[in-house]
Amino acid sequence: MASSGSNFSLADAKVAELQEAFKQNKLTSRQLVEYYLSQIVKLNSKIRGIIEVNPDVLTLADQADKERKAGASIANTGLHGIPVLLKDNIATQDKLNTTAGSFALLGCVVPRDAGVVVKLRSAGAIIFGKANLSEWCHYRTGPNGWSARGGQALNPYLMSVDPRGSSTGSAISVAADMVAVSLGTETDGSIIHPCNANSVVGIKPTVGLTSRSGVIPLSPKQDTVGPICRTVSDAVYVLDAIAGNDPYDNATELVSRFIPSGGYKQFLKENGLQGKRLGIVRSPFFNFPNENSHLGQAFENHFQTLGQKGAVLVDNLQVADITIILDSKQSGEATALKTDFKINLNSYLSKLVSSPIRSLADAIAFNLKYSTLEMIPEFGQTLLLEAEQTTGTSDPAYQEALAKMQRLTEDGYVKLMTENSLDALVTPNSSVASMLAIGGYPAISVPAGYGPNGAPFGICFSGLLGYEPRLIEVSYAFEQATKVRKPPSYLV
Fold it and tell me: Membrane spanning segments where (predicted)?
């Protein structure tokens, strides 16, 4: 099904376009779901972006159509009747599994919907299915986008190019038009990495702006849930739906103070770059190797566009201890994550209604018993085993790691942003991920172009806590000024 009549095409349709088609009776939610199901039949066996589809998805679509026809108030929400794909670490209390890509959790029963899923359902969204990911959010060692349940996810633009992770399936499924809206999670780069590699838009929210309850955890200090879509506007519609307080995640009560009255859609301004102060740290972010020399010219062109649209470029800035910050072992991040992962995963597993495993140790034992992949060098349990060996938050090494991360953040990123009065830092692809991760800072990744071989690359706009309004203005204005993104052609 390529369209639903009246010259309306479903291919790569935006959320606003879908909602308008609903209102004009050019489209039903059932037709939209059927279109995405046909795309999955055609494409998913090639790129393996989706692990499973909700068996009730057509029933949910029919329910949305009935609500719309009856004039129900919920039908006026921005995501009503829109299918949403969830990364397979976001719990749903329905017929879908929540496994982080591992067979060890297949068949487990969660106590309730994740906090963001509650908000999606309240907004009338259709829970479409679960996306492939790097197993255990890449805490089981393996290629980006690989999980035991989902197999190897592939880049829809060029299968030989790394699709990045861990929210790989969420990004490639949106890029290939198997769904318009998805959710990913990020601890360190797991939204912005796959978004820049697969030419889609991702919002990594301020940690605590969106609930992490019901999400298989790595670290509450760094974990965040955010939208992955094809346009900034679509991602913002989703952010409006999922941001806010959740009684099951204490961090949301404090961080919800950053949510502006009237929500985030008001910041979708074509003139959003006017007067914005954008920082550029040349080294190391723009030191491209010879094989990526095309990126240098591409970003110089983008800088020119940003300036022409009214931004003030603050160039040649430096970040103190940037080499240490970007190295997770040197910064202390790796040490802190191992401890946090064990504690928080064990807590999550202990609260499941039923589960084949109840601890990290059980997950490790499961892999040893059933997997033959541990004999292959690129697959293994190194991180899982190291996490299991940690002794808790009272360990001096853990406390030292937290203190070091805080010092590096304050002397580095915070000082950079505040002393230069920056509205955003501009970086290529996802090279800034670790600097944002250790401080819990937000970012938006936007498609920025394609290399000589057709491989996508992105641009990242990042800021301090609660800077989402500024980042939305900047990223939307950049997107509208450049209109770089194009769908993957060879899959058609």
Answer: none
Number of other CB atoms surrounding residue 442 within 10 Å: 26
Q: Does 4 have pLDDT greater than 60? A: no
Q: Is the pLDDT of residue 317 over 90?
A: yes
The residue extents of the domains of the chain are 15-269+427-482, 334-393
- Rounded Cα gap, residues 122 and 83, in angstroms: 13
How far, in Å, CA of 391 to CA of 389, rounded?
7
Instruction: Find out whether the peptide bond into 220 is cis, omega within 30 degrees of 0.
Output: no
Per the document, the length of the chain is 492
Residue whose C-alpha is closest to residue 144's, from 189, 98, 95, 84: 189
- The answer to whether 243 and 209 are in contact (CB under 8 A) is yes
For residue 227, report the phi and psi dihedrals to the nearest 5 degrees.
-80, 150
The DSSP code for 354 is B
Active site residues: 87, 166, 190
- Residues 32, 464: Cα–Cα separation, whole Å: 38
Q: Tell me yes or no: is domain 15-269+427-482 CATH 3.90.1300.10.
A: yes
Burial of residue 487 (CB within 10 Å: 0-12, 13-18, 19+) is: middle
pLDDT grade for 3, boundaries at 50, 70 and 90: very low
Within a 10 A sphere around the Cβ of 360, how many other Cβ atoms?
22
pLDDT tens, residue by residue, 206-238? 999 999 999 999 999 999 999 999 999 999 999
